[in-house]
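Got a spare moment? Tell me how you read both lines of this record:
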Amino acid sequence: MKKQIFSEREEFTSILPEYGRRKLLTYADSIRELAESFRDTENVRERMPQEVKADRRDYIWQKRLNENKDLMVEHLKEMAQIMTQLAEEARRCVPMGERRFKQISHALREVDIQLKNLYLIENERGRMEVSLTMRNMKKNSLTAEEIGDLLSVLLNMHLVSAADNSFFIGASWTTFYYVEEAKFHVLTGVAKAVKETEKISGDNYSIFETETGNLTAVLSDGMGSGEKACSDSTMVVELMQKFLEAGFQMDVAIQMINSALLAGGETSNMSTLDLCSMDLYSGECRFVKVGSAATYIKRQHLVDRISSGNLPLGIFQKTEMEIVGRSLIDGDYIVMISDGILDALSQGIGEDMLSELIGSANLENPGEMANAILNFCIHQSRGRIRDDMTVLVIGIWKKEEE
């Protein structure tokens, strides 16, 4: 493919400056988010009534902050190292041969797009990306996705617009990135129930792409219930998403979030972390569990249960995480749950029967499957909802070849 498109006389050059600049800016934003979390914690302490600030409690508070200081220094060093590595990062890119460049430039001009340069980039995973610097010469509203479809035809490869591209092609020169289309696609479904004595759930989740072709699902169960549990689990989910989207290593992100929970004040701040990260190109999947309930992989009527025996975030200075890898295939389902589901089953047939329930489900839609599991568990507890309950289902299918 490359010999047909690119000139063999051209030499490989270093990575485009704009490519690294975007990542560095995102790193900086994430660090600011973490700083805001610590600042908000200090403000809460300042608003506490004076009579609550007894000498002993104040001593415990100061002791905890001092204990976290060394850990935060380690995290800052980790972040400095990440930025150093990124600044030194180089990717192979080669400009297009003049004749082929003119052919593509002419095709884009037919839709009023002016092309400045075009590169083929081999990323760190060995997959190809296409970089274009272009602008819209008229006021027509062409999207980055539409240009991607055109490039797919012109370059004879399936390309999709990168997640951080602008939606429309504007009048100023802008660099857009296109990547190879992933092999798999997913559908997701969620069902939730709030503890009967509360108005707000202590469970929170997020499903997002850290980069094109990598889907991540995060589920966190705040200890207790109500607003306090919701606040803790929200912080875990939001910070995890921001750090992973910025490109931080997963273990570093988890340790930083653990530190934020430990610095949350005199009251207990504990939350579970259940994370599933899928490579939609290869089907490889990583499950990361910190004090969370079991996760289930359904393959037709067979069910693989992934469980952990560690404690939630916010207890120890150095948290323990369990990481398990699996290879997914067409038609697999992933079922992630909060502790409330297991508590409900313990009132009836017992939590060991959940694998059998999931394996016997004949529903194809992830949303319907999530609702069926939730409703069954509520029925087993005789309609009582003694704890927040969340079921998150992800179905993965192989894309059809065109």
Notes: Confidence is low (pLDDT under 50) at residues 1-16, 42-48. The first helix runs from residue 2 to 5. The longest strand covers residues 113-122.
